[in-house]
Amino acid sequence: MGCITKHYLNESTILGVWKIEEDIKTLLGMVEMDGEDRKKYRVFKSTSRRLEFLSVRALLAELLGKDARIVYNKNNKPFLKDGSRFISITHSHNLTAILCSKDEKVGIDLEYMSANIGSIAFKFLNRREKVTKNPETRKYHLYIHWCAKESLYKICDKEGISFRNNITIMPFEVKESGEIKGKVRTKRIDESFDLCYSRYNNYAIVWTKKNYGNNNLPGEDQPVAAPRSR
Known about the structure:
CATH 3.90.470.20; 11 strands
């Protein structure tokens, strides 16, 4: 199917989602890999990891053009080679999503809602957070919390942030889509964020963006917030 949405959140920020229905041969024909891409691609032995890797690059080409390249810093975090945008990448099951912006830091996460997430909720929820007891929406509500915390972890780009102790999602009534607020508080961070969430079939998707004023665009010494293994 390829790109199922390419949404401009504002004049400088783009959100794209790719549904993987292609085989490896088809995706290979849709992307142009340089030497570094090919080297990293050959490391992956499983078909699923190769499909994920290729779908990220196919979606990036759809959003920014075929010349756009993802490279990695010493911590294996991805950023755009030309440093033109902040970027965040996420993948789960058959969906890949990218959020990128010229002037806003970004964070995005999506999850296929398959696990019994209720059994591990105590590991990432704190006492200030409220989750519905309605069995029809409880799983989705929990996944929104998880995805929101992942998104905030990424946008803050800080190691050592505890989902349970340092990130709080303010109570909200769960709907198919909406806006929520989150806070990140550590010894070095005290920030509030607006987040958006949505549901696509059995996926929960949450993203956030924030303009920090005169922030330099990312480079090798200033990695953007993004998943750690894309």
